[in-house]
Amino acid sequence: MHLSGASKSWGLSKVLLNNMVNIGSNMLLRVLLLCSVVSGVAADNDNTELQASNKPIKIGCLFPLAGPGGLYGRDSVEAIRIAEEDLKRLYPSISQTFEVIIGDTRSKPLRAVQIARDFIESKKVDFLCGVVSSRIALAVTEIAKEKKVFFIGTDHASPRLVTEALHPYYFRVSNDTRQSMQAGAQYIRNNYAKYVGTNNAKNNNKNDKRDDRLKIAYIGPDYDYGYQSWSDLRAFLTQKAVKFDVVGEYWPKLFETNYNIYIHALSDNKPDIVINGQWGQDFINFIKQAKQLQFFDETTVMNFDAGGNYETFADLGDEMPLGLVLSARHHINWPLSAENRSFSERFKKRVGRYPSYAAQGAYSGIVSIAQAVSNAGGVTDKEKLRVSFENLSIKLPEDPDGFTSRMDPKSHQILQAQSIGKTIINKNYPPASVMLGDWFVYYPAKEWPATINP
Amino acid sequence: MIFDFGQLVLVKRYLWGSLAVAILPLLVIAILYDRHSSNLMDRLLLERIEGDLQTAIVKINSFVNAQHKRLDNLADLPEINSVFTQDSDTHLSPRLLDFLYLEIGDPDIYGIAFYNAEGEFIRAFPSWSEQTYSENGVYGNSNVAESELIQAVLPQSGRPGWFLIKKTVIRNQVNIGTLTLMVRLASMTEQTSPLYLRGVYEPIIITPDNEALSVVGNTVTSKDLLIESENFLPGWHIALQHIGKINKESDIGRWLLVLAAISALGIMWLFISMSERLARMITPLNDGAQAIANGDLTTQVPENGPGELGTLAHSFNNMSKQLNSMIKTRVYSERQASLGKLATGIAHEIRNPLATIRTTVHGLIRSETHPAHKEMLQVVNDEVIRTDAIVEEFMNYARPREPHKEFIPVGDVLATVSTLASASALETNVTMSITGDTSLVIHVDPGQLSQVLMNIVLNALQAMPEGGHLTLRTHREGKYAHLTVTDTGQGIPEDQLIEIQAPFFTTKKNGTGLGLAICAQLVHVNDGRMEIQSVYGEGTTVHITFALAT
Question: What ipTM is given for this predicted complex?
Answer without folding.
Answer: 0.82
